[in-house]
Amino acid sequence: MKGMIIVNVSRCNACKSCEIACAVEHSASKDLHQAIHEDPTPRARVSVQQGTSFSVPLQCRQCANAPCIALCPTDALYRADQDSPVLLDEEKCIGCNWCVLACPFGVIYLDEARRVVFKCDQCFERVQRGELPACVSACPTGALLFKVLEEIPKERRDAYLVEIASSLTGGGS
Amino acid sequence: MTDLEEQKTDVGTITVKKPSERVPRVSCLVCGTAFATEKQVRRVHEKLHFSDQLAATCPVCRGAKFRGAMEKVLSSQE
What we know:
The structure holds 2 protein chains of 2 kinds.
Chain A: E1 3-7, H1 17-25, H2 32-35, E2 47-50, E3 55-58, H3 67-71, E4 77-79, E5 86-88, H4 98-102, E6 109-111, E7 116-118, H5 124-128, H6 134-138, E8 144-148, H7 154-168
Antiparallel strand pairs in A: 1-8, 2-3, 4-5, 6-7
Chain B: H1 3-9, E1 25-27, E2 34-37, H2 38-48, H3 52-55, H4 59-77
Antiparallel strand pairs in B: 1-2
């Protein structure tokens, strides 16, 4: 099942519940009270960015032709199958930073202390169990939604991508 | 044949990297923070076909740029 985390920006009030839920989900204990005391401190894969008029939770966009996978020299970044999100095998990661430089959205981060990268995996295991990604579950306002790709009309996806690409290249919308 | 492939086929020589060698890092076009070596920026540009500007922008500024683009699109939809 190919899913996508959708952001409804008008509903985001930057409470950062998604960041906390993400860090807890990726902790060893998966419990908030214990996660706080874990070493290394669990890190969030989603980052709520404050804009001028909106707050936007940013996480990996799970690119179809992921440049991070293309540049990873150890195959630490991979897809379990063609519909899976981009996953990280920490055992293989050497912290070389290539994927961080390759990401056009700046949503892969390097853990300097452990010399491994961390990125959103769309809570792959949770989704496999039929649950929602942790950030989506934790969002109190419904700003984050998890949609199966087929539920979003292709025309709408294409139109959005064209607008984003146009804005990024300075062409206006 | 790429440099790496050429090196691999040339069994008569080996490549030795100097751990003590210091390489300058280039600054981000947007914020000015040093973030990658010139060779890294060039490889990202060549291998991924990123524009010169995107390849020379640091990951933090790329995130900010993406956020800005989203804002712009969403503002126009309101």
